[in-house]
C-alpha cells in the first residue's frame, strides 16, 4: 500500500521504517525538504538529525507535505498536535478528500510546565481528532496508536507477548477496517484493537496522555502499555 | 480502623459496606441527616433511596459531614468532584488537619453534554486532588481508586484474578502506606498498586476518566479495569 507519513520526528521515522520493512511504499512529508536534509540539530529528546536516519533509509523519500499526501492511499498524521491542522492545510484539503487519514497526534502543551498538559482548545470538550475531521470533512479520519510509545506502536510483541490494548475510533467503518489491516500487519492482534466508536472518542484517547506521562515518569520507561481486562 | 466516608452515593455506600464487613468502624457523612433519611428519590442512575440501603446496614451510622470527619482516623472523600471542596469545608479544616484524607472524587462536568467532560477549573493544569491538598494543607491527601467502577474498588478479584492496576499518589509517604494497607485489606495485591508520586499526579489519574467513560460506552459494562503491562 502507498503510505504518506506527515512528520519527520521519532514517531514518523519509526512508522516509516517499519511500514517500509513490511513491504509498503512509504514517503515522509515535511515543510521544507532542503532545510530538513541540511539540518544538523538534534530534536528535543536528543535524537540525531533527520539526515542521519535518512542515510540508512534510502528507500523512503523525504518530500513536501503536499506530495506525501498525494502519494499516499493512506495518510498518517505524525506531527505535533498543535501544528497538525496547519500541516494538513499545507498538504491540501482536495488531496486529502476521500483518503484514509490516520491521526496519531496528541495536543500536548509544554508551555505550562512539565509534564505537558493538553492544549485547552483541542481537549476536554473537543479533541485533535475531531477538529481534524471537521476541518477536512471529506477525509476519513481514524484515530489510533496515540496512547503509547512509538516502539510499541510498530512492534506490539515488545510487551506482554503483544497482549495489550490499542484503541481505534472514527466515523467511517471501511476506513477503520483498512487501518485494522495495517495494524495487524505490524503485529497487533485483532482482539486487542478496541473500537471506541466515532471520532468523538478522540476525546477519550487523547485524554489518556496526561495519565501516560505520569506512568512513564513513575516507571522511568516508556516501554509499557495499558491492557483492558475484564 | 475508624473510617469516616463523605458522600452517600453508590461509591460511598459500596466502600462503607465493604470496609465495615472487613471489621472497620465506619460512619457515612451527609449534609443533612434527617433529609437524607427521609428522601424517597432515586439517584441519577436509578438506584434506590439511601434509606433502603441504610435499613440493611444498621451498623453504619449516617452522620453530619463534620461528625464523620471527627470520627474517622481516615477520611474518604466520595462526593462529586465539583462539590468536594465545599463538603470538606463543612467537615471543617481543623478536623481534617493531620488526618489521612483519601480522595476518590472525579471533577466530572455533565453540563456540556454526555459523556461528561472535566470541570475546566479542576483539570488539565490543575486537579481535584491538588486543590483539596492546597485548600487543606495540613491534611494528608492520598488520591486513589478514582479510575474504576465502585464494585471493582472494593473487590478487585472481580476482574482478571485481581491482576490490574490501581494508582496512588500523594505527598505524605506514611499516609500512602496507611492507604495501601486499607487497599490490600480489600484484596488489592501490593504489586498492582502503582505509586505515581506526589499529589500533582492527580492530574494524570483524573484525566483518565474521559478515557474510562468511552471504554465503558464501547463495552456497555463498567466491569473492567486497566492493567499496565511491560
Describe this protein's structure.
Two copies of one chain form a homodimer. The first copy, chain A, is globular, with a radius of gyration of 16 Å. In chain A, helix 4 crosses helix 5 (84-91). Chain A has helices at 10-21, 33-38, 50-56, 65-71, 84-91, 93-96, 128-135, 150-154, 173-185, 202-206, 208-219; strands at residues 2-6, 25-30, 61-64, 74-77, 100-103, 108-109, 117-118, 140-144, 166-170, 193-195, 225-229. Chain A has a single domain (2-219), classed as 3-Layer(aba) Sandwich (Rossmann fold). In chain A, the strands form two sheets. Chain A has an eight-stranded mixed sheet with strand order 3-2-1-4-5-8-9-10, sandwiched between helices. In chain A, strands 6-7 form a two-stranded antiparallel sheet. In chain A, helix 9 links the parallel strand 9 (166-170) and strand 10. Chain A is 38% helix and 20% strand. Chain A is built from eleven helices and eleven strands. The termini of chain A are far apart. The first copy, chain A, is an alpha/beta fold and 230 residues long. The interface between A and B is large, with 43 and 43 residues. Strand 11 (225-229) of chain A pairs antiparallel with strand 11 of chain B.
Keywords summarizing the entry:
homodimer, 230 residues, Rossmann fold, 8-stranded mixed beta sheet, two-stranded antiparallel ribbon, globular
